[in-house]
Amino acid sequence: SNNSSSSSNAAVKFSTTYKNSDATDKTATKNGTLKLALVSNSPFQGITDPQLASNASDSMAFAPGNLNNLFKYDKNYKIISGGLADQKLDRSAKTATITIRKNGKWSNGSPVIAKDIEYAYEVLGNKDSTSSQYSSDFENIEGMAAYHKGTADTISGITMPDGENGKVAVIHFQKMSPSMQFVGNSYISQYIEPYEHIKNIPIAKLASSAPVRKNPIFTGAYKLDKVVEGESTSWSPNKFYYGKKAQIGHITINVVSLNNIDKALQSKKYDSVVPFPAASLGGTDYKNLKNVKGFTNVGEPSLGYSYFAFNLGHFDTKTGKNVEDPSKKMSNKSLRQAMMYALNVDQVSKKFGNGVKQRANTLIPPVFQKYYDKNAAGYALNIKKANKLLDDAGYKKRNGSKWRSDPQGKPLTIHFGAMSSNATTEATYQDYLQQWHKVGLNVKLVNGKPIETNSFYDTLQKPSQNTMDLWLGVWSLSSEPSQSQLYGETAPFNMGHFATAKNTQLINKMNDSSAWNDKSRTKTFKDWQEYMNSQAGVVGEQFSYAWQPVNNRVKGFNISPANDVDFYSNLTLTSSSMK
Amino acid sequence: MEENLNKHSNISAADLDRLTKEASEEATPSSAKIIWNEFKADKPAMGALIIVIGFILFVMIAALFINTPKMMETNIMNYNAAPGSNGFLFGADTGGRSVGQQLIVGARNSIGIAIGLTLISSTFGICWGLISGYFNGYIDWGMQRVYDFMMMLPMTMMIIVLVTIIKNYNAVTLTFIFSIFYWEGTSRLIRSRTLSESEKDYVAAAKTSGTSNFKIIFKEIMPNISSLIIVDTTLSFAENIGVETGLSYLGFGLPIQTPSLGTLIANANDPNNITQYWWTWLPAAILIIILCLSISYIGQVVRRSADASQRHGITD
Amino acid sequence: MSLIEIKDLKVHYPIRSGFWNRVTDSVKAVDGISFNIEAGETYGLVGESGSGKSTTGKSVVGLEKVTSGSIMYKGKDITKKSNRNHLDYNHDVQMIFQDSLSSLNPRKRIEDIIAEPLRNFEHLSKDDEKLRVLQLLDIVGLDADALYKYPHQFSGGQRQRIGVARAVATNPKLIIADEPVSALDLSVQAQVLNFMKKIQREFGISYLFISHDLGVVRHMCNNIAIMNRGRLVEIGTRDDIYNHPLHIYTKRLLAAIPETNVSQRKAHREARLAVEQVYREQQDKYYDEHGDAYPLVQVSPTHAVALPEALAQQIVQEGEVKA
Amino acid sequence: MWKTILRRILIMIPEIIILSILVFLLAKAMPGDPFTGSINPKADPAQLHHLMKINGLYDPWYQQYWNWVVHLFHGNLGNSYQYQEPVTRLIGGRAINTLWLALFTTILTYCIALPMGMYAAKHEGKLPDSIIRVYTYVTFCIPFFVILVIGVWIFGFVLGWFPTTGSISSTATPGIQSVGSRIYHILLPGILGALFGTVNVVQYLRSEVIDAKRSDYVRTARSKGVPEKDIYKHHIFRNSLLPIAAFAGYSITGLLNGSLFTETVFSYPGMGLLFINSISYRDYTVITALVLIYGILNLLGTLLSDIILSIVDPRIRIQ
Amino acid sequence: MESTSEFLNIKDVSTAFKINGKYYDAISHINLEVHHDEILAIVGESGCGKSTLATTIMGLHDPAETKISGEVDFEGTNLLTLNEAGYNKFRGAKIGMIFQDPLSALNPLKRIEDQISEVMDYHTNFTAEQKHDRVLELLDQVGIVNPKRTAHQFPHELSGGMRQRVIIAIAIACKPDLIIADEPTTALDVTIQAQILDVLREIQKENHAGIILITHDLGVVAETADRVAVMYAGQIVEQGSAEQIFNTPKHPYTRSLLRSMPQLENQNDDLYVIQGNVPSLQRMPHEGDRFAPRIPWVPESAHEKDPVMHVIETGHEVRCTCYKEFKFPDEAEDVKA
Ligand SMILES: Nc1ncnc2c1ncn2[C@@H]1O[C@H](COP(=O)(O)OP(=O)(O)OP(=O)(O)O)[C@@H](O)[C@H]1O
Ligand SMILES: Nc1ncnc2c1ncn2[C@@H]1O[C@H](COP(=O)(O)OP(=O)(O)OP(=O)(O)O)[C@@H](O)[C@H]1O
Ligand SMILES: [Mg+2]
Ligand SMILES: [Mg+2]
């Protein structure tokens, strides 16, 4: 099995594949319906265009259409050939050449053309585009900046040697980056747009237009039959698909709320949930579902993780850089480390994670097998060490107070920001507070209670804030593991403003020319992880599994990234009714 | 003229006391007494009254002995401990916190909110209804427009929006927010009664006796609709106990550190908890139902005693 | 100078209609009436239901917003609120209501009810006040134990007497009595009327006595005004009205009084039908083109009727011939 | 009559304007903005600022309000930030679902409540009356969402009789099947909603009938020799049902309020659920539009009640 | 006056109401006859049981709350033994009733025509057209000027006098033998009262019906009644022809009532006042003369222990022998002086 998890304290081991030994029932497969649940508390938005969609529900709801993914990739998300298109990087010419396979077709039968590739950039970078996925990284493409500003009508850096209807597009960069080898990087879009289908619609109106919402076309194994706004989609095999033909007669995807999913699966309303790298059925769900008859669980490490971050400085809007502020309350490294040692994340993970969560020992999650430092120690519970660190750094209890004061003797109150969520997470916050109280630190929840998500990020995204001294946040990651957008010197999402020279240097190194060498890049990642752990400016809290139960009538269920492109065409059924 | 009057009187100041005493012995029972008699005559109602008062007292007093921050400390080892296990008589919730203690403190908080809400919204609604019903013309017209406007507001939505805006809200703020939207029913009821009451001649008599409008409203009319006020207040109190639960369910109620019957019942929003961890929500739900039932039963008795023709108790 | 002089009093209630709900018309409840009430007399105001008697009464006591006209008391126009306040008007002018139950606040004890005007107008000490209340009860023939009772514990007649006690509490000069006995049984009615007369004799109070029962009015009043659709159709002394009625409306009212003499009921009925006949046939003679009463014309120093001058004279003469 | 209705509608306009300003301001006062929520490494904050700017979210509120009003007069309530779709279309789709459910619930409520209320009143003080009263008390005392949650659990999951999410089956083909599927989906929420909604109607109807039973005109009817059965049919029920009919308009308010809960519990994509979602996404345009629509529906409900009442009750018939 | 046959014979009827679980007599041992073509007036102060007697005849009491004894013999049937369906054959058809409050006695939501024709639905087999014609005829008969218009109106659109006429129309729609009118004019003006009484009389003449006219207004009685029964505290204390009652009243109560009317002669004197009050149901004395407490100057010995009716002359009966010794206090003084 393709088991990527080797972390010592994970209690459960998942396989990414459900190896069904039953034989495929041809007629059941052909006439049957595979029922998938989309776990979400809100209806999906119905934007089939992945470049315009702003949350994950849509990509799950339209997954059987394969979301116009250009590339096939391996389990490390590295682009390989065999997908709809192949990519060739030329470091010296600073170009990426994308070649569409001959038989690449949209689900309406029209061929996939070079203009489809180019148009993806136009949609993304258009000054009126409603997409929130554009980032300044794309301005690495020649002419993109001008196009984005609206001073140019086309992107000069993208050429189509065979013409718009050809199969080849060449992208010219100002600078090449090793991350370009990976899918989900921020320089090369992994998507295409069906130019002929949507060309008459102004880009500003694209997201609400009929070709995107009502009668979209896809390049995947299945084609969309029907979409019930916000609720469900249903699919049947796409006969124009270039690859292995889809086998199941129908696939339906229904939105099911987080509250109801356990019951829905237990009562066999669904075969499984739509697989998604960062989708999370949590620990409680696992507890409820692990023993349901007729289901087998599959899983892989999630593309997301949770973390503690400390408020260490501010964002200088003039220079566009994060600057550390030595005067901040949390600037003392010992204090930060002590706080992390005081927590018993292992216990929390065990209790509430039920084995599908584990303490994060670093900031790169295990899904990036190559880069993940499984040997990193991280911060396991060590009260003694925590106390010692504090004592040594001068955080002492003075004047008989039950709380430690700061080295100058001033009372120390630390404000902990946490997002409101379900009861277990909120119980976890309380546990953390208690642990900190145990080492004599007066830590309080900001506002005395968990903060609603919007207010939480609203506060954090201010260039400078003193409301939260540390907080517990969550990242869901891109499949390309570079860290510059999260923790880089200029990254606005570096909300703790951790910005040491060493950090900047290591992060830059992840994407400089040395990084073309896989080994060297791996080392950079491990160095960075070690550095981050030692600094404790941002500390991982928990890693988790993206896991899901699969009904035993399903065959060929493999959620490994390497199988992403062919996931749906590989599925068959072994019986017409659920087991 | 003064002499004329005195001529007619053969009452000495000394007689005055005696007469006063004699007269007061003959006085009719006050409405409080009538209600009390009604309770004495109706055993189940007495039971309900005792349950409600006893429970409120118990909860208020018992809550004093519970250290809430301590109670709300999580102990994840006691995650959803079953009743009877780990020394939890009523079990523990997700955070390993005693459900029993939370019930007490939660009931105190919920009842507190209900009392506060009832007090504020009823007082406001009563005054609004009285004033608007008594004065006709522009005052009434203006007040009715405000009332119409308030009626138009989609209540729950507005509360959710307000709760979202106010970052740092607690039970008190929540009570005030609810109060903004809960006075309309009372005011409407009171207004229509005041309208008909104002038509009566005793109001005209008070006016010709030189009594000020303010006094007429609060000293003449209000006592006459007091039974309506009592009934309405009791019933809104019963209703108000459950008000906060709905919002807690939607996630806009009290923060988790402030236990309430609503936050407890909201545990039922996870279908798993319904059966698996029934003790986290069921006792609170039952408690609310019993309280609410008892109070509305009391309301019925009060209503009955307000309506002389339906009285059971002997009052004459 | 008369105690109260009412001049061209009008009370109109607006009728709203049309798209903007504007005032498009009005109910002319009282439409230009004038009469004076002398000190110590009982002035009767008689008319069918809806003729505007109560409205007139309420205007005089200050309960109604007057549309136009004036009501002079002590040389001041008391249709203005400021003048009423200034004069402590209701200290001198009080009212007795038709429905004794509704006019006594059921939640107040008799003591508080009777003391209410005292508390507002004469600030007495507690004991003085109680003494006064007891005296008042005594005057209207109720026992002291009434003090602490509530209105519903009394019979209709007793309640009406309590109403009288409240009205006389401040020694008023004028009491408006709006159908004070029409809700009462015969025997109780007698009680109340007797008390009203007694109090008048002793304190020299004037009454504006409103009623549609001509028998009672005859018993009580010296001067009488007949009201019809917001206007006065006839004013005169008791003798003028009962023995020399001029206006057809007055005659009709008088004819409708049931005859208590059983043996004459047939004749009485025929007489009534005859009057009805005239009333139906000669409407346009007695009313102007809008169906309203004409302005009053004086036919004798005490007697005025709402008829055109010529017709009035003619009827007077006919009457004399008959007599 | 039409004039009066028109006038009433005109009077509503200032109320609606005030409400719109109020809602607009409140929506703006909520912390965060529509783009904060979409925080993920792929979203470049610069791009988010760019989006804020092109959507005019940095303008002063009156400017934003004015733009909104101008758009409104072109039948445009703006675009949903979250759904990237015109609000009118977005809400249009959801409104149909909510109204379907509301209509069904209303019909069901009356189907259950009318016989119950009349039966209880007819047998006032007897056993069936007591049972029905206990039912109304208990239902009155249980918070609505508890009824919903337990209903879903029992009938949706344990017994599996009804679907538990959505408004229509994903496989239903258009035509009869899809209508059937829609009805099937609103059955359970409708029944549960109706169960809750009956309380008011039953209590109101019961007291109306009891009042009517004691009224003078019923005594007149008795003295005419009308048999008891017909007295109930022609006098008591008829007279007490008419005001109940008018109640229907007011019940809109309650239904709309309830939709927040029903739709959340059943993941039923109507306006209520949309509102709850939009709150967490800070989707101003949608929030504003929804509150406004609910407000207007409330107003129309009141108007409808008044109209029904004036039609059925000759005493207050509008000229 | 063709026939004077009696057709309603009330024998020893008592009606008791349940108050707080105990029964109290509102009327006790009433004996009365009603003849065709006559108006029998029942007078008495408020609360003396006049309406109770009427509703007892009509069978409008809730059997769970009342206890009725005696016999109401109507054209040979004892009404009190009938069941609901049996009673309905009489109500509206043979007996019509007119209520006091004309507004609340009409169904506010039904047109006048429907309310009148309803009574014909159950007691005639008229076609719709016939009923319609009859409605217009009836309205005309009770003196409504524009029957067509009125038939289409709702009660609230009519004045009090018109409503009372409509109620009379309902009561006479099936030409009943007996009409019970419970204070039909109390809420009305003198002029309208006179008209309504005229209407009643005309109808009686046309139908040869017997009318029970309940009122407390002696004037009305004097004007309309053929025979009069005076009630006090649930009993009939005196009955006789109108002349007998008004010209030679015997019972102290009747005499007191007559004396308390304002009269021409005693214009400036005080009116006579009957001492005390009508006792309430629960305080009603059940022995001796019930009126005795209100004429305390009459010696105890003048009252019978169990007062019975004494025939004074044909048709004139008085309860208790106290009338023999009764003189008003002032009259007594006059005699002395
Ligand atoms: N508040 C009011 N608004 C409109 N119309 C009114 C109002 N009060 C009285 N009216 C009308 O004014 C007219 C006179 O009323 P008023 O009460 O003075 O008559 P009344 O002679 O006292 O009659 P009644 O004998 O029935 O008491 C009536 O037609 C009545 O309908
Ligand atoms: N349903 C009832 N239950 C109890 N007591 C009743 C009931 N109906 C009437 N009474 C009482 O019976 C007595 C006689 O009442 P009834 O209505 O017959 O008097 P009445 O002579 O018609 O008086 P009025 O002139 O006021 O109509 C009264 O004391 C009354 O309070
Ligand atoms: Mg009047
Ligand atoms: Mg009566």
TrEMBL record, chain B:
<keyword id="KW-0812">Transmembrane</keyword>
<feature type="domain" description="ABC transmembrane type-1">
    <location>
        <begin position="107"/>
        <end position="299"/>
    </location>
</feature>
<dbReference type="Pfam" id="PF12911">
    <property type="entry name" value="OppC_N"/>
</dbReference>
<dbReference type="Pfam" id="PF00528">
    <property type="entry name" value="BPD_transp_1"/>
</dbReference>
<keyword id="KW-1003">Cell membrane</keyword>
<dbReference type="GO" id="GO:0005886">
    <property type="term" value="C:plasma membrane"/>
</dbReference>
<dbReference type="InterPro" id="IPR000515">
    <property type="entry name" value="MetI-like"/>
</dbReference>
<keyword id="KW-1133">Transmembrane helix</keyword>
<comment type="similarity">
    <text>Belongs to the binding-protein-dependent transport system permease family.</text>
</comment>
<feature type="transmembrane region" description="Helical">
    <location>
        <begin position="111"/>
        <end position="135"/>
    </location>
</feature>
<feature type="transmembrane region" description="Helical">
    <location>
        <begin position="45"/>
        <end position="66"/>
    </location>
</feature>
<feature type="transmembrane region" description="Helical">
    <location>
        <begin position="155"/>
        <end position="183"/>
    </location>
</feature>
Automatic annotation (TrEMBL), chain C:
<dbReference type="InterPro" id="IPR050319">
    <property type="entry name" value="ABC_transp_ATP-bind"/>
</dbReference>
<keyword id="KW-0653">Protein transport</keyword>
<dbReference type="InterPro" id="IPR013563">
    <property type="entry name" value="Oligopep_ABC_C"/>
</dbReference>
<dbReference type="InterPro" id="IPR027417">
    <property type="entry name" value="P-loop_NTPase"/>
</dbReference>
<dbReference type="GO" id="GO:0015833">
    <property type="term" value="P:peptide transport"/>
</dbReference>
<dbReference type="InterPro" id="IPR003593">
    <property type="entry name" value="AAA+_ATPase"/>
</dbReference>
<dbReference type="GO" id="GO:0055085">
    <property type="term" value="P:transmembrane transport"/>
</dbReference>
<dbReference type="Pfam" id="PF08352">
    <property type="entry name" value="oligo_HPY"/>
</dbReference>
<dbReference type="GO" id="GO:0015031">
    <property type="term" value="P:protein transport"/>
</dbReference>
<dbReference type="GO" id="GO:0005524">
    <property type="term" value="F:ATP binding"/>
</dbReference>
<feature type="domain" description="ABC transporter">
    <location>
        <begin position="4"/>
        <end position="254"/>
    </location>
</feature>
<dbReference type="Pfam" id="PF00005">
    <property type="entry name" value="ABC_tran"/>
</dbReference>
Automatic annotation (TrEMBL), chain D:
<dbReference type="InterPro" id="IPR000515">
    <property type="entry name" value="MetI-like"/>
</dbReference>
<feature type="transmembrane region" description="Helical">
    <location>
        <begin position="241"/>
        <end position="266"/>
    </location>
</feature>
<dbReference type="GO" id="GO:0055085">
    <property type="term" value="P:transmembrane transport"/>
</dbReference>
<feature type="transmembrane region" description="Helical">
    <location>
        <begin position="182"/>
        <end position="205"/>
    </location>
</feature>
<dbReference type="GO" id="GO:0005886">
    <property type="term" value="C:plasma membrane"/>
</dbReference>
<feature type="transmembrane region" description="Helical">
    <location>
        <begin position="134"/>
        <end position="162"/>
    </location>
</feature>
<comment type="similarity">
    <text>Belongs to the binding-protein-dependent transport system permease family.</text>
</comment>
<dbReference type="InterPro" id="IPR045621">
    <property type="entry name" value="BPD_transp_1_N"/>
</dbReference>
<keyword id="KW-0812">Transmembrane</keyword>
<protein>
    <submittedName>
        <fullName>ABC-type dipeptide oligopeptide nickel transport system, permease component</fullName>
    </submittedName>
</protein>
<keyword id="KW-0813">Transport</keyword>
<feature type="domain" description="ABC transmembrane type-1">
    <location>
        <begin position="95"/>
        <end position="305"/>
    </location>
</feature>
From TrEMBL, chain E:
<dbReference type="GO" id="GO:0005524">
    <property type="term" value="F:ATP binding"/>
</dbReference>
<keyword id="KW-0472">Membrane</keyword>
<keyword id="KW-0067">ATP-binding</keyword>
<dbReference type="InterPro" id="IPR003593">
    <property type="entry name" value="AAA+_ATPase"/>
</dbReference>
<dbReference type="GO" id="GO:0016887">
    <property type="term" value="F:ATP hydrolysis activity"/>
</dbReference>
<dbReference type="InterPro" id="IPR013563">
    <property type="entry name" value="Oligopep_ABC_C"/>
</dbReference>
<dbReference type="Pfam" id="PF00005">
    <property type="entry name" value="ABC_tran"/>
</dbReference>
<protein>
    <submittedName>
        <fullName>ABC-type dipeptide oligopeptide nickel transport system, ATPase component</fullName>
    </submittedName>
</protein>
<dbReference type="InterPro" id="IPR050388">
    <property type="entry name" value="ABC_Ni/Peptide_Import"/>
</dbReference>
<dbReference type="InterPro" id="IPR003439">
    <property type="entry name" value="ABC_transporter-like_ATP-bd"/>
</dbReference>
<keyword id="KW-0547">Nucleotide-binding</keyword>
<comment type="similarity">
    <text>Belongs to the ABC transporter superfamily.</text>
</comment>
